[in-house]
Each structure stands twice: as structure tokens, then as C-alpha cells.
Amino acid sequence: MKEEKGNPEEKKEQTDSAEEDLVFEEDTLEHSGAFGWNKNPQETIKKLREKLKKCESEKQESMTGLQRTKADFINLRKRDEKEKEEFAKFAVENFVKEITPILDSFDLAIAKATEAGDSQWKDGVTSIQNQLLAVLQTNGMGKIVPLNEPFDPKFHEAVGTIETEDESKDHLVLEVLQAGYTLHGKVVRPAKVRIGQKT
Fold first, then answer.
1. N or C: which terminal CB in the chain sees fewer CB atoms within 10 Å?
2. Distance (Å, rounded) from C-alpha 6 to C-alpha 92?
3. Cβ contacts of 29 within 8 Å, gap of 6 or more
4. Residue 114: enclosing H or E segment and its boundaries?
5. Contact assessment for residue 103 and residue 181, using Cβ atoms and an 8 Å cutoff
6. Contact 176, 147 (CB under 8 A)
7. Domains and CATH numbers, the chain
């Protein structure tokens, strides 16, 4: 058996260094291991639970914020779509206002034909007027002719009264001087009327 040669002091230094490394490794494992383990497992579990609770809270906050943002986006899109629909509905309002004098001319022509007793002319003009009104009605336009209906300031404009002794005709529309028009239920022009007033 060969006797090991070497300086005893060098051997002692190597042994001391190995012991220091071992102590360092143990200390590292105890205080800063991969999962933060230490000598007290209860404390480690408590810390992990706190971290888990914090993560769950942050996750819930993120989810709540995401859901709120999503709801806001959906509401914004619905409002935008509604505004587009409203714009499309009333984009033709100026056109309707411009065409009402032409419709008035039809009414006047029919009235004159009736006075003259010209039924053929009246029927022809009425037919053309009805065709035009049918096209306008499919696009949301309506005609207000409130003869013998109760006066409604939302749809009628009173320009005069007609005295009557019949109590049932009080505040009824007894004469329509000019038809009114609506667009999708909104009054574009109220009907000009004279209403009954009991004497």
C-alpha cells in the first residue's frame, strides 16, 4: 500500500473548504431554495397561500376589468348602430320637406277637378298621387289628414276656428287646409286645420 504524500496543512485547508461549501449549500437550501422552503414548513405554506390569494385577487380584478371593457365595447357598438339607423331614417327628411309642396299641388288639383265636376281629371290625378304616396309610405312617410278627428297639437296646427252649436264637434278638426306629413312617426310638417268651437 502506497503512503500518500503531501503537506498536512494543505489537506487541512481542503477539508475546511469542503465543510464551508457544505454549510453554504445547506444554508442556501434552508433560506432560498427553489420554492422558498425554510426550516418552518407552516410558515412556507402560509406564504404560499398568501401568494395564491394575491394571484387570485389580481386575476379577478383583471377579469372584472376585461368584462367591463367588453361590455362598454358592446354598448358602444349598439349605440353606434342605433345612431346609423337613426341617421338613415331621417337622412331623407330634407327631401320630404322639399316634396311636400308638390303633394300639396296634387291636393289642389284634385280639389279644383272636384269643383269643376271633371271626374276623369280628378281620377287621373288621384291615381298619380296615390302611386307617389305609396312609394313615399314604403320609405316611412305618412300623410296626416285629420278631418273629424280630435285636435292634437302634436300633429295639427290650428289656424282658425269654426263656430258650431253641435257639442260633439267642439275641438274636432272640421276643415283641413293643408295636409301634414310624418317620417317614421316624426312630424315633418303638421296639418293646418280649423277646429270646431261650440258657441
1. N
2. 108
3. 37
4. helix 93-116
5. yes
6. yes
7. 93-198 (2.30.22.10)
What is the three-class DSSP state of 79? helix
What is the maximum span of the chain, computed from C-alpha positions, in angstroms? 149
| pLDDT single digits (tens) 48-62 | 888 888 888 888 888
Which residues are CB-neighbours of 160 under 8 A, at least 6 positions away? 194
> For residue 58, how many other CB atoms are within 10 A of its CB?
10
- The DSSP code sequence of 2-68 is PPP-S-HHHHHHHHHHHHHHHHHHHHHHHHH-TT---S-HHHHHHHHHHHHHHHHHHHHHHHHHHHH
12-46 burial by CB neighbour count: b if 16+ within 10 A, else e? eeeeeeeeeeeeeeeeeeeeeeeeeeeeeeeeeee
pLDDT given at position 14:
53
